Structure formats: structure tokens, C-alpha cells
Amino acid sequence: MTLSNFEIVSDVTKEYFCVDERPWVVGYSGGKDSSLVIKILLTSLSGLNHPKEVNIFYCDTGVEIPVLRDHIIESLKLIQAEGLSLGINIKTTCIKPPLKDHYFVKVIGRGYPTPTNKFRWCTDKLRINPVQQAIKEIVGEEETIVVLGTRYNESNERDKILKRNETDNKYFFKQTGHKNTILFSPIRDFSTDDVWESLLTKNNITSINASYIADIYRQISGECPIIRLPDSTPCSKGRFGCWTCTVVRQDKATSNLIKNGFRSLEPLLEFRSWILSIRDDTNHRCTVRRNGVRGLGPFRLKSREIILNKLLETEKKSGFTLISEEEIETIYKLWEEDKASPKYQEDPAIFI
Ligand code: SF4
């Protein structure tokens, strides 16, 4: 009998998991590839009763598309329960970036312009650093295996990076800048069709709801990574990510979700389009940067207040909690700091 790709990599995963004591950490985004990796992991470690802990991290940036976030948080609980019932020493954790790095603290508090391809300050702060920090807190400086759903044949750029970081073992990759992290990608040779086939036909693991994921992917594609591949640009498309993402000109993910019935997301899409429309407007942006150089600087204080009010309106209209009290308090403090700082400069705006 020929083994399927899924069975082959499940055997490989079991073998490498048991071979030594190095801790295993899994980056889970809720997307199809990381969901498949979880499925492989639970399948391969099932019944082993191995004492080694498997830590699964999901990073909640605070600006995840609410309906997707809720689904992922729910699936984290299911994954942990199913893993434990299969005899796996598993722990799922939803991690968050530090308050000072929250999206709205940066944009409304400090006046950061919303991210674009040229000024993409968000991915490291919101996704990659919190995961690296969580890994460090759990395993310290120990060499760690980080399991990822990275694959060849996704793009030429991705292939080049993977090639450059190959090791003697085809499933393991180096991570530049992180000597103690080894990336393990069991699905490195899976095509997109292989991923869907394994996700949808292997029904042994119930905590991964493959048909829900397939439904979402019919509407959305692309996801913002939570572990940086060595040397790669941090975010590929930024669509299965933050609802506030302005790295892409059009938010197809939210638009398509709305078209498919998620009408409560409409106010979020409107807010995102509006904030994008004022991003480069000198009526809303200081004309001196924080370093004193002339050029588009932070959002003006008045504009930050306008943005906050607009966000609170959006919250009311949509029914979703979009900003916390703690964030609002921090934002007020940052406004006071700017008001008191002799270095903070605002030319008069023309319209506001
Ligand atoms: S989804 Fe967009 S806004 Fe969010 S971290 Fe990625 S690039 Fe930044």
C-alpha cells in the first residue's frame, strides 16, 4: 500500500519529535497551512504519551478581523482539549503584543501613519516580536524547533529564501539572526492542492474545522506571518490579518466577507478606507517629523482625536469591541506627552 503525503510527513514528524529533548513550538495563524501542520502534529503524536511539551502560539494583534479571531480562539481551546485527550503534552496560548506596540496606541496615541509597503512598522511589532518573546520566555536560550507550515512553490522569492536556508536535513531550515531556532517544515513539498486534500480528507482530527477554513479561503487569500522567515519581507499580502491593514490598497478579505454575509464588518471596512484616505493628507499630518526633519510627520493631535472618535463610532455601529479602556488611557497619556514636549511641532493645518 502506498502511503499518502500526509502519512509520510506524519511519520517524519513523529520520528523527529522523539529523537531528542529539544522543545517544540508551533506558530498557528488559523490559515490553511498552519492548520494542516496542527493536524499532522496531533496525528503523529497521538497515543505516544511523550512527556515533551508542545507549545502552540497564536498571536492576537488586537486588530484581527473579529469573526476570524473568534473562530481561531475557539479552535485553540479545541486543539488543546483534543491534544490532551490524545496523550499529547500540549499547551495552546494566545499571545498579544505589549500595550505600547498595539496598533491603535501607535496610530492614535503616537500618531504613526497607518502601515504601507514602504513604512511597514507593524508586522514585527504586532506579530513577530511577541512570538519570539513568548518562545524566549518558555524555552530561554535553549535550542528550539519551531514548526511552521512554510512550503516551496508559493513564490519565487519564498523559494529562494528557503533554498538559502536549507540544512543537511530537507525538513529543517536555519533562521538567520536566531541561532537557537531551527525551523521544521513538514509540508515543505506540499502543493496547494496537497494541502487542501489533506485538510479536507483526513478527518481523524476534529479540532481543525477544515470546511470552515475552506469556506473562509473561498473568500480570502493570503495571510500575515507570525514567524519571520529568514531575510524575507515580513508580510506577504496582509489579507488574512488585521482588519486595519493598509499595506494592501484594497481590503479584499473584509470586502468579500461582507459580500458573503458578514454585514457587521461594513463599518470596519468604511473606517479602514477613511483612515487610508487621510493618511497622507497634510491637514492631518504634521509637516515636520519627530526627528525635526521637514516631511510628513505624525498625525496631528486634533486628527488623532478625530480618528479615536471615528473608531468609537465604528465600534458602536458594528457591535464589536475594537479598542480597550487600557488602550484609550495610554492614548490620552501619549497626547499629554506630545503637548508637553518642546520637540513636538505642528504647523497650522489648513482645514481642521
Ligand atoms: S496584516 Fe497588515 S497591518 Fe497587520 S501586521 Fe500584517 S502588514 Fe501589518
Structure description:
The chain has a six-stranded mixed β-sheet. The protein has twelve helices and six strands. The protein has two domains: 5-101 and 121-219, HUPs (Rossmann fold, 3-Layer(aba) Sandwich); 252-340, no CATH class. 45% of the residues lie in helices and 8% in strands. The chain is of the alpha/beta class. It is elongated and about 70 Å long. It has helices at residues 5-19, 32-45, 66-85, 103-110, 122-139, 156-164, 192-201, 210-219, 252-259, 266-278, 301-318, 325-340; strands at residues 24-27, 53-59, 89-95, 144-147, 172-174, 181-184. Helix 1 (5-19) packs across helix 2 (32-45), helix 2 packs across helix 7 and helix 10 (266-278) packs antiparallel against helix 11 (301-318). InterPro entries: PAPS_reduct_dom (IPR002500), Rossmann-like_a/b/a_fold (IPR014729), Sulfate_adenylyltrnsfr_sub2 (IPR050128). This is Phosphoadenosine phosphosulfate reductase family protein. Residues 25-205 form the Phosphoadenosine phosphosulphate reductase domain. It comes from Parendozoicomonas callyspongiae.
